[in-house]
């Protein structure tokens, strides 16, 4: 369990009578890529909500995909099927919402079987779970319905539908990209708009104008690979493990600075737009490493340079967008935003003058989530679900959309 486990609280004492009229408990499910995430969140209030995290469990499949150097959707789907029930049981237990009941046979299980007809091995576990556990006291189930890997999204959505039907609890469909942005509300209850969000993950790299919750416009995005994908593929070429982002980041942080003798391109850094391209960087790394002995020093230097090339373009374009749209805040989200160097360079660029010059007043406030919440997790789905609580619907109406866009 991560640091946001069962006893984490924001602003509210556990077991205190909930102070907000209309407070609700949301169970959230995330399976869009290779992490199985389930969280339970209690939330209340309107403009600046109050959150109490009851549990947040993430089961990572990294070890399984590592041997292949990337995520295999069908294998990820199989792992989600295996993980969902144990993760749910852990999330409910941690939130003190798991109660055993005496076994009974329930006629509803026939429909549950139909909902999970394409997830047969999951059905067997769900059946046992539903037979043994009482309906928990939750008000809604939020679930990622896109974007992401289609087979993975289906497992999570069908699982959510089965629970929704069996327990008679409405569903809230959540956009994964929006959740990467809105998770910032957990720590910063008030966010000033307009804001420019940079969502950088393994599948997406987008600069989004945020005029309020639910009011988005994509200003620019990658024309080919995502930044996280670039980290992962470059790492593979250097003989490093998957996922490449954290590995490159760790090696780069230990490297002796100022020694890089290789200069990689910063694709599209000077174009007059907010778009990105990372496939050229990947190709440049491919040519650079060709026939080279991958010595420790060489790999270190390449890690520093790859990371810096990616940071340079992300920083330049995001700052430009923030200036052009007179943003009050810059919001970072997605797996790559866990990168320490990226965080510190964003902070430095935004909050300080060049070295030696006293710090000036910051033009924008910069927000990023706690590192564990930058990468995929159920809690971000719960937070987004709370903001969209008015859109709760019957389980039959939820449809997977692997190519879902935010605007
Ligand atoms: O948001 P996320 O968990 O999943 C997707 O929605 O794709 O992002 C995963 C991506 C991977 O490409 C991974 O290499 C990258 O985020 N990542 C990082 C770091 N931690 C994860 N990239 C750079 N530095 C990190 N510390
Ligand atoms: Zn993600």
How would you concisely characterize the structure shown here?
With 407 residues, the protein is α/β, with parallel strands linked by helices.
List the topology elements.
Elements: E1 24-30, E2 35-44, E3 50-60, H1 62-66, H2 73-94, H3 109-115, H4 120-132, E4 140-146, H5 150-167, E5 171-175, H6 176-182, E6 195-200, E7 205-212, E8 215-221, H7 227-237, H8 244-254, H9 279-289, H10 296-324, E9 329-333, H11 340-351, E10 365-367, H12 378-387
Parallel strand pairs: 1-4, 4-5, 6-9, 9-10
Antiparallel strand pairs: 1-2, 2-3, 6-7, 7-8
Helix pairs in contact: 2-4, 2-5, 3-5, 6-12, 7-8, 7-9, 7-10, 8-10, 10-11
This protein binds 5'-O-[(R)-(carboxyoxy)(hydroxy)phosphoryl]adenosine (KG4) and zinc ion (ZN).
Quote the average pLDDT. Answer: 90
* Main pleated sheet: 5 strands, mixed
In spatial order, strands of the major sheet run 3-2-1-4-5
Termini, distance in Å?
Answer: 34 Å
Name the poorly predicted regions. Answer: 1-17
Taken together, the total number of domains comes to 2
Proportion of strand residues: 15-25%
CATH superfamily of the largest domain: ATPase, nucleotide binding domain
- Distinct ligands, ions and cofactors found in the model: 5'-O-[(R)-(carboxyoxy)(hydroxy)phosphoryl]adenosine, zinc ion
The level of helicity is 25-40%
Structural class: alpha/beta
Total strand segments: 10
Identify the CATH class of the largest domain: Alpha Beta
CATH topology of the largest domain: Nucleotidyltransferase, domain 5
Query: What would you say the CATH architecture of the largest domain is?
Result: 2-Layer Sandwich
**What is the overall shape?**
globular
Reading the helices and strands in chain order gives: EEEHHHHEHEHEEEHHHHEHEH
- Please state the CA-atom Rg, rounded to the nearest Å: 22 Å
Number of helices: 12
């Amino acid at each position: 369990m991560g640091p946001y486990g069962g006893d984490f609280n924001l602003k509210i004492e556990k077991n205190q009578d909930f102070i907000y009229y209309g407070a609700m408990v949301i169970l959230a499910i995330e399976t869009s890529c290779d992490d199985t995430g389930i969280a339970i969140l209690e939330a209340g209030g309107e403009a600046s909500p109050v959150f109490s995290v009851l549990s947040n469990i993430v089961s990572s499949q990294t070890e399984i995909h590592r041997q292949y150097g990337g995520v295999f959707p069908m294998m990820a789907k199989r792992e989600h099927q295996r993980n969902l029930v144990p993760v749910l049981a852990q999330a409910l237990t941690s939130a003190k919402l798991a109660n055993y009941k005496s076994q009974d046979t329930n006629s509803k299980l026939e429909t549950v079987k139909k909902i999970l007809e394409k997830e047969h091995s999951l059905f067997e576990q769900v059946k046992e779970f539903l037979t043994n556990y009482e309906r928990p006291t939750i008000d809604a189930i939020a679930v990622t319905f896109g974007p992401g890997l289609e087979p993975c999204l289906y497992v999570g959505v069908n699982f959510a539908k089965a629970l929704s039907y069996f327990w008679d609890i409405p569903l809230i469909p959540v956009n994964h990209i929006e959740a990467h942005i809105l998770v910032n509300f957990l720590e910063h209850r008030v966010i000033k708009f307009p804001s420019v969000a940079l969502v950088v993950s393994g599948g997406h790299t987008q600069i989004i104008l945020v005029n309020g919750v639910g009011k988005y416009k994509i200003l620019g995005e990658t024309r080919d690979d995502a930044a996280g994908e670039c980290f992962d593929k470059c790492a593979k070429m250097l003989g490093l493990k998957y996922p490449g982002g954290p590995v490159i980041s760790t090696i780069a942080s230990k490297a002796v600075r100022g020694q890089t003798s290789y200069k990689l391109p910063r694709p599209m850094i000077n174009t007059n737009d907010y778009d990105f391209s990372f496939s050229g960087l990947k190709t440049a790394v491919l040519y650079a490493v060709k026939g080279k002995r991958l010595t420790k020093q060489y790999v270190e230097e390449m890690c520093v340079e790859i990371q810096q090339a990616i940071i340079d373009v992300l920083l330049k374009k995001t700052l430009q967008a923030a200036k052009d749209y007179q943003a009050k805040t810059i919001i970072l989200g997605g797996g790559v935003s866990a990168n320490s160097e990226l965080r510190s360079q964003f902070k430095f660029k935004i909050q300080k003058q060049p070295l030696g010059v006293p710090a000036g007043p910051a033009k924008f406030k910069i927000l990023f989530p706690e590192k564990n919440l930058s990468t995929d997790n159920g809690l971000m789905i719960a937070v987004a679900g709370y903001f969209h609580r008015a859109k709760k619907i019957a389980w039959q109406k939820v449809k997977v959309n692997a190519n879902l866009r935010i605007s």
